[in-house]
Amino acid sequence: MTIPYNIPISDLDYCLEQLLDHKPPKILPPETIQHLCHTLKTQLLSVPNIMPLQSPISIVGDIHGQFHDLLEIFQIGGSPPSTNYLFLGDYVDRGYYSVETISLLIALKLRYPDRVFLIRGNHESRTITTNYGFYTEVLNKYNGSAEVWTYITDLFDYLPLGATIDGKIFAAHGGLSPSCQQLDQIRALDRFREIPHDGIMADLVWSDPDTEILDFKLSPRGAGYLFGLDVINKFCHDNDLMQMVRAHQLCNEGYTSYWKGKCLTVWSAPNYCYRCGNRASVLEILYYSGESKSMGEPNANENDVKYDDYKNRFEDSIVHKVQGVLPGQFFNIFEASPENDEDTSKGKGVNGINSDEELVGNGDFFCSYFKERPRKQHVEYFL
Fold it and tell me: Other C-beta atoms within 10 Å of 192: how many?
């Protein structure tokens, strides 16, 4: 039997310092990544397939190895533990910094286990990462060794498949499945394996909404399905849900709202692949706007996001109509980080060259890193 255990906070802060306090960020040694992955696997064994989470929380879509844009998210939206985050998968592949991105998220999950939550996307797969960049990046950054790729892809098998927020919002990476009518069917799955080619688990990470259809249709991706209005209406009705939030699709403006907010897509990789020129977003959910709550009674406590900080934008009915979100929700839209543009101009394909700088500083390195940087104003974009 595997017994869960914790890594000392000082060790986790040291890992965070390596990634945050150096340019370029220092890659962690293979033995450190092995230790981090093993520790997180033991902790994820007891986590259900669908995590029951509460607002306030910020939901992040695909990142795809864009490390500097991940830091931009924390700069504009607040860093853990002051902000709760749910990441919807696709942490690696495509971008130049998949190793650094997933290393940071693993360290953050271990450092702030009740504030940072990770679910699985279709790129958290051995097959996909072999073909779309992560495997090659590991070989380049670790002198031809694939050990780190093995440690991390083994960890991917342990990631949950979804989450509920306030019991009313279902979050997954991709979409719905014709084989699944009830959340309990997802809860009963054996998720500790490679993503299969078909079935509920595959559909959860591969499917997409389509406003042109009502039922299910085979996806042009070659995996998963397209699903229409009748499908999501029935799924929400049968499971007492109000909304589905997912990622998985590039959105030029950073987000897409389907069917008057019944389904939302959040995309968090700006200037995707360093050439698409798109914006990105984080979906901030301050509270669930059900019958039991009003605009003036958010579900927050003194340790969480302060309602007054967000009151004006969340009460703006124009924002809700334009963005197609429910009251209490807001797409925080942002552009690519300056480092993203710099990498593009220099054509970087491989990072990971560590310098011999001396380590300095003490305390909570993650929070202190962002406290020293000026917070950017969110970018509001209206169609």
Answer: 12
